[in-house]
């Protein structure tokens, strides 16, 4: 049963520290997404990769956040420096985009619960 | 106006009831639609895709109305285990890509 995996599952850090979250997408999927979920904002799209190329990161605060896919089996989301307002659950999802019509389904990892004090 | 809107609820229904949720979207160029289920402190899980002709999966029926720009989810014979938050997702065209936008979710509580 193929699944998206994320590490760490929980992270508590102090303001100003660097945080790196990792995601292993489902083998064969060609799209990867990073989301942030809070009670106030719901699920927000931060970054979107297709075939490892970044397609959209308009939802991501550029000054402190960065997202990369160094290879097809690893996606990373980095926050430097972290702030208390970054406290949230960060989900990675992967999917298969069948055609240029964009019909695809996303499968989510279990998330990283980040607390910045 | 938000791109994807849902009534947050909660919808509080007895076991066995039929309940329906709607989700409206503003991007007329939206291409594909989905319903996800999210349990408390868990990740969203795909419930079903929404096809133009409507589709059914057991007790769940999803429909799309492109003219009025909304999708719906109908749950028949509600079970206690259906209690969760139901998120709709709309993939809307933006430049050369299709960007997924999630609604805030509708909370369902099924009680004995």
Structure explained in plain terms:
The complex is a heterodimer of chains A (117) and B (112). By secondary structure, chain A is mainly β. Chain A has strands at 5-7, 10-13, 19-24, 31-38, 42-50, 53-56, 65-71, 74-79, 88-95, 106-108, 112-116. In chain A, the strands form 2 sheets. In chain A, strands 2, 4, 5, 6, 9, 10 and 11 form a 7-stranded mixed β-sheet that branches. In chain A, strands 1-3-8-7 form a 4-stranded antiparallel β-sheet, with no helix packed on it. Chain A is globular, with a radius of gyration of 14 Å. The model of chain A has no long low-confidence stretch (mean pLDDT 92). Chain B has 112 residues and is an all-beta fold. In chain B, a hairpin with a 2-residue loop joins strand 6 and strand 7 (60-65). Chains A and B meet through strand 5 and strand 10 of A and strand 4, strand 5, strand 9 and strand 10 of B.
Topology:
The complex is a heterodimer of chains A (117) and B (112).
Chain A: E1 5-7, E2 10-13, E3 19-24, E4 31-38, E5 42-50, E6 53-56, E7 65-71, E8 74-79, E9 88-95, E10 106-108, E11 112-116
Parallel strand pairs in A: 2-11
Antiparallel strand pairs in A: 1-3, 3-8, 4-5, 4-9, 5-6, 7-8, 9-10, 9-11
Chain B: E1 4-6, E2 11-14, E3 19-25, E4 30-38, E5 45-50, E6 55-57, E7 60-65, E8 70-75, E9 84-94, E10 97-102, E11 106-111
Parallel strand pairs in B: 2-11
Antiparallel strand pairs in B: 1-3, 3-8, 4-5, 4-9, 6-7, 7-8, 9-10, 9-11
What is the average of the pLDDT values of chain B? 92
Tell me the radius of gyration of chain B: 14 Å
The count of helical stretches of chain B stands at 0
Number of strands of chain A: 11
Main β sheet profile of chain A: 7 strands, mixed
- Helix content, binned percent of chain B: under 10%
Strand content of chain A: over 45%
- Derived from helix and strand composition plus strand pairing, the structural class of chain B reads mainly beta
Q: What overall geometry of chain B do the principal axes of the alpha carbons give?
A: globular
Task: List SSEs of chain A in N-to-C order.
Answer: EEEEEEEEEEE
Q: Strand portion of chain B, in percent?
A: over 45%
Distance between the termini of chain B: 37 Å
Oligomer: heterodimer
Overall helicity of chain A? under 10%
Order of helices and strands of chain B: EEEEEEEEEEE
């Amino acid at each position: 049963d193929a699944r998206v995996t994320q590490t760490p599952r929980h992270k508590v850090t102090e303001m100003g520290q660097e945080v790196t979250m990792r995601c292993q997408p489902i083998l064969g999927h060609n799209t990867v997404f990073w989301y942030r979920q809070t009670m106030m904002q719901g699920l927000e799209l931060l970054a979107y990769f297709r075939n490892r190329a970044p397609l959209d990161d308009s939802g991501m605060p550029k000054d402190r956040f960065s997202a990369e896919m160094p290879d097809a089996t690893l996606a990373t989301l980095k926050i430097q420096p972290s702030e208390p307002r970054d406290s949230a659950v960060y989900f990675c999802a992967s999917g298969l985009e069948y055609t240029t019509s964009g019909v695809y389904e996303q499968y989510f990892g279990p998330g990283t619960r980040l607390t910045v004090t | 106006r938000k791109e994807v809107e849902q009534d947050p609820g909660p919808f509080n229904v007895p076991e066995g009831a039929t309940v329906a949720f709607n989700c409206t979207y503003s991007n007329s160029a939206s291409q594909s639609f989905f319903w996800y289920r999210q349990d408390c402190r868990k990740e969203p899980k795909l419930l079903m895709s929404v096809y133009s002709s409507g589709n059914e999966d057991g007790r769940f029926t999803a429909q799309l109305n492109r003219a009025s720009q909304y999708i719906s989810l109908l749950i028949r014979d509600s079970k206690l285990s259906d209690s969760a938050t139901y998120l709709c997702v709309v993939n809307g065209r933006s430049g050369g890509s299709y960007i997924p936008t999630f609604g805030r979710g509708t909370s369902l509580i099924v009680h004995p």
